[in-house]
Amino acid sequence: MMATKPLKKLVIGGVELNSRLFVGTGKFSSPEAMAAAVEASGSALVTVALRRVDVRNPEDRTLSALDFSKYRLLPNTSGARTAEEAVRLAKLARAATGTNWVKLEVTPDPNYLLPDPIETLKAAEQLVADGFVVLPYINADPILAKRLQDVGCATVMPLGSPIGTNRGLKTVDQIRIIIEQATVPVVVDAGIGMPSHAAEAIEMGADAVLINTAIAVARDPSAMARAFRLAVEAAVLAREAGPGESTAKARASSPLTGFLHETKGAAS
Amino acid sequence: MKLQLNGETQEVNDAATLDELVTRLGIERQHLVIEHNGAIRTAEEWSAAALQDGDVVEMVRFVGGG
Q1: Per-residue confidence (pLDDT) for residue A65, from 0 to 100
Q2: Does B45 map to a domain?
Q3: Are residues B66 and A55, on separate chains, in Cβ contact within 8 Å?
Q4: Which CATH entry fits the domain spanning A11-241: 3.40.50.1220, 3.20.20.70, 3.40.1190.20, 3.40.50.150?
Q5: ipTM greater than 0.95, yes or no?
Q6: d(CA A129, CA A95)
Q7: Is residue B8 in a domain?
Q8: How are beta strands A45-52 and A72-75 bridged, if at all?
């Protein structure tokens, strides 16, 4: 059966976003390539990370080409292995940008970068209490998603497959349940490698997708960003158009009468 | 005096405040945030934040990320 969940305006933390494609700013070959790709994506929300300044080599250009006035920033807590570290990073991020939005990620495992559900929930509770708009990155666990929603998270962001793998929606059945239960926007984050994966996520009822690696590592990041933009727009349009029902048996597209093989009984 | 700066011990003798430390190290101020002995200090607070021997200073900023 096709998703029939009606498309509502995308509102996060009281702010309406006019694009359902969120993009990351990591892994690009140059600051200029990153800025051009972000522009081509049509995104309104871009993620950034927080790192120690290299005091011996203090010039950092990675975000220098980005026009910060054009995008809402979503700082992440990447590198955090515990709730405590994530909360510390979130507070530093808030001080650095003034935004109280945070993509909460707690990833103790360096091989698969899978998020720790217990530490994530713990950090989410503290951050919500401290006035943050919390967008948690989670494994596609419907119960966890519900718990995070219940403690006041602004979205839930289940992964399609591990970060940076470009493998697509390997967790599709779980994501479907998350979407079914969600009262907050569902953003499919991580693992989306091709525009068709992004379209699939939106078509099945996700409210937005977050893409970084697939755009950043493409030979032509701006062209790939545009491809993702078009895919997301196509899926949004399809949702608005109201897809037909999917069925097991064939249903003919032409009238089932007037076939050449038809014979009528001889006239009496 | 000795500071614990971004996880490394560093000898600093010509900076009395966080603001002077940023200047002396030549660090770009945009999107810079400093944690001083565990407390977050925004740019407006740097010139009033006196440094003392043994202080722990973390300087962080935004970089590309997903």
Answers
A1: 85
A2: yes
A3: no
A4: 3.20.20.70
A5: no
A6: 17
A7: yes
A8: parallel
Domain regions of chain A by residue span: 11-241
Known catalytic residue at A103: yes
Q: Compare all CA atoms of chain A with the CA of B30 and give the residue at the minimum distance.
A: A96
Residue B66, domain member (yes or no): no
Chain B positions in Cβ-Cβ contact with residue A51 (cut-off 8 Å): 60-61, 63
Using CA coordinates, name the residue in chain B closest to A30.
Answer: B64
Taking the C-alpha atoms of residue A82 and residue A68, their distance in angstroms, rounded to an integer, is 29
Report how far residue A235's alpha carbon sits from residue A257's, in angstroms, rounded to the nearest whole number. 35
The owner of tokens 């003034």 is A98
Per-residue pLDDT reduced to its tens digit, A98-146: 899 999 999 999 899 999 999 999 999 999 999 999 999 999 999 999 9
Q: Which amino acid is at A191?
A: G
Residues 6+ apart with CB under 8 A from A104: A76, A77, A86, A90, A120, A123, A124, A127, A134, A135, A136, A137, A153
Beta-strand runs (E) in A83-143: 101-104, 133-138
pLDDT digits (tens, 9 = 90+) for A169-214: 999 999 999 999 999 999 999 999 999 999 999 999 999 999 999 9
> Whole-angstrom Cα distance, residue A118 to residue A127?
14
Q: How many domains does chain B have?
A: 1
